[in-house]
Task: inverse folding
C-alpha cells in the first residue's frame, strides 16, 4: 500500500534527514513510526503525501511512485491528521469535517449525512457540536473532529502525526481505545507517528523504530518486547520505569 | 462671521465639496484595494518580489504629497485632468498599508493550519480563498482602515492642483487668512476620517471570521 524504496531526503543538499530508508506498510495494518524528536518521523510522513519530495529513491502509494501522482489527487486519497492544530479556526465543526466532500463537489444532502455519520463514529453528538468552532472544543474533541475530517472522503490510507500528543493522559487513553475499535471496523492502512512507546504498543500492529533518519528495525509487539537490540531495550526500560 | 453661520450660508458649497472629497477618496481606495491586495498576495507566493514591491510602495509614501502632485503634473494622460491625477497619487499613498497588511495577514496564518489544508488536498487557490484570505481578513481590513484615514487627510492637498475636495476651503482660508474658511474644510474632513475609521473598524470586528463567537 505504501512503500519506501531506498529513500533519501536532504532539505538543503548537505545534510540528510532521511537516508537509506526502506519500509513497506501493508494494506489494513497500523504501522507505528516510533522515534525520538527530530529523528525524521514527521518528514517520513510528509514524503507520502508529497508535502515534501524525496531527494533520492521512491515512495510508492498503491504501487505507483508518488512523483507520478497528481499531488492533489494523491492527498485526497490520504487522510491526514496532525497534532493539535490543523482544524480551520474560522470553520465550524461541520464545515471542517465537510471540507473534502465540499471540495470534491458532493451534493449537500450527501455531505450532511456523511458529516452526521462521522460525528457519531467519533462519538461527538452532531446536534450539540455541529455548529461549534474549534476553539469552543476541548483538546480531545478537537482531535476527534480531526479524525472525522480525515475520514470524510473515505480514504484508504491515513497518515497520523502524533494525533493524540497534546492530550492529557486520561483523555488520551480513552481516545486510543476508541481509535482501536474504529480501526478494527474500518481496516484503513495507517502510518502513525509517535514518540510515546506506550502508545506505539497500544496502537500499532507493527512498530518501526527510527533513529536519526534511519530505520533501526520493524517489530511486531511480541518481537518488540523480546528482542535484545539495545535501541529497543532502551524503550522497554522506559516502560518499566512507568509501571 | 461665526463658523456656524459660515456653514449655513455656504451649505451648498460645503456639501458639494464634501461629495467631491468623498468621491476622490472612495475611488482611490477602490483602486488601492484592487491593486494592493493582489500585490500583497503575490509577494507571499514569490518572496523574491517582496523587496521591490514593498520598497516601491514605501518610496511612494515618503514623497511629500505636494511634491508628488507636482511630479505627476507633466504625465501625459494623468496630467490632463486634475482629479485623475489626484486619484492616481492618492492610490499610490494608500498602497503601502494595504500591501503590507495583506502580506502580514497571510503570513501570520498558523503554519499548521496551512499545512493541514495542503495535506488534505487543497489547491493553492483553494488554500488562498478558503483559508488564508478569510483568516487574514481582520489584518487586511486594518490596513484598509489606516490607508483610508490617511487618504482623507492627504486628499485635502489635492485642491492645490485644482482637483477640488474640501482642500478648496482650506487653501482659500489660508489665502484669506480666515480661520472660519479653513475650518469649513478641516472639520468635514476630520468628520469623514473619523466616520471611515469607525465604519471600517466595525467591519473589521464583524467581517473577520476569527472574531465571531
Result:
Amino acid at each position: 500500500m505504501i512503500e519506501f524504496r531506498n529513500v533519501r531526503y536532504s532539505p538543503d543538499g548537505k545534510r540528510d534527514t532521511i537516508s537509506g530508508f526502506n519500509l513497506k506498510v501493508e494494506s489494513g495494518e497500523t504501522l507505528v513510526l516510533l522515534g525520538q524528536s527530530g529523528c525524521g518521523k514527521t518528514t517520513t510522513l510528509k514524503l507520502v503525501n508529497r508535502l515534501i519530495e524525496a531527494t533520492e529513491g521512491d515512495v510508492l502509494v498503491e504501487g505507483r511512485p508518488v512523483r507520478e501522482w497528481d499531488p492533489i489527487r494523491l492527498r485526497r486519497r490520504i487522510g491526514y491528521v496532525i497534532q493539535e492544530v490543523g482544524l480551520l479556526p474560522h470553520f465550524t465543526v461541520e464545515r471542517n469535517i465537510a471540507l473534502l466532500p465540499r471540495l470534491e463537489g458532493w451534493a449537500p444532502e450527501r455531505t450532511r449525512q456523511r458529516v452526521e455519520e462521522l460525528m457519531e463514529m467519533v462519538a461527538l453528538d452532531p446536534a450539540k457540536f455541529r455548529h461549534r468552532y474549534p476553539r469552543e472544543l476541548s483538546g480531545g474533541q478537537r482531535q476527534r473532529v480531526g479524525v472525522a475530517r480525515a475520514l470524510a472522503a473515505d480514504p484508504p490510507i491515513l497518515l497520523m502525526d502524533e494525533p493524540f500528543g497534546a492530550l492529557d493522559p486520561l483523555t488520551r487513553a480513552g481516545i486510543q481505545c476508541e481509535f482501536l475499535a474504529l480501526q478494527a471496523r474500518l481496516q484503513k492502512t495507517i502510518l502513525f507517528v509517535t514518540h510515546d512507546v506506550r502508545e506505539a504498543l497500544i496502537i500499532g500492529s507493527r512498530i518501526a523504530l527510527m533513529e536519526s533518519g534511519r530505520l533501526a528495525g520493524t517489530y511486531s509487539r511480541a518481537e518488540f518486547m523480546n528482542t535484545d537490540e539495545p535501541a529497543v531495550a532502551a524503550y522497554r526500560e522506559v516502560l518499566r520505569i512507568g509501571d | 462671521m461665526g463658523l456656524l453661520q459660515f456653514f449655513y450660508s455656504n451649505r451648498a458649497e460645503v456639501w458639494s465639496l464634501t461629495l467631491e472629497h468623498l468621491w476622490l477618496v472612495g475611488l482611490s481606495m477602490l483602486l488601492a484595494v484592487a491593486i494592493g491586495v493582489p500585490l500583497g498576495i503575490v509577494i507571499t507566493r514569490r518572496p523574491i518580489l517582496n523587496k521591490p514591491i514593498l520598497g516601491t510602495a514605501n518610496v511612494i509614501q515618503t514623497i511629500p504629497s505636494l511634491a508628488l502632485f507636482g511630479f505627476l503634473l507633466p504625465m501625459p494622460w494623468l496630467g490632463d485632468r486634475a482629479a485623475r491625477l489626484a486619484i492616481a497619487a492618492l492610490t499610490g499613498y494608500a498602497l503601502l498599508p494595504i500591501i503590507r497588511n495583506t502580506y502580514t495577514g497571510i503570513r501570520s496564518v498558523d503554519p499548521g493550519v496551512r499545512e493541514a489544508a495542503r495535506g488534505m488536498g487543497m489547491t493553492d487557490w483553494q488554500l488562498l480563498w478558503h483559508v488564508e484570505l478569510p483568516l487574514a481578513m481582520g489584518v487586511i481590513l486594518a490596513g484598509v482602515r489606516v490607508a483610508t484615514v490617511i487618504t482623507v487627510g492627504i486628499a485635502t492637498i489635492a485642491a492645490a492642483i485644482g482637483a477640488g475636495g474640501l482642500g478648496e476651503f482650506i487653501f482659500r482660508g489660508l489665502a484669506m487668512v480666515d480661520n472660519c474658511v479653513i475650518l469649513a474644510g478641516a472639520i468635514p474632513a476630520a468628520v469623514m476620517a473619523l466616520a471611515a475609521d469607525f465604519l471600517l473598524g466595525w467591519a473589521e470586528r464583524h467581517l473577520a471570521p476569527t472574531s465571531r463567537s
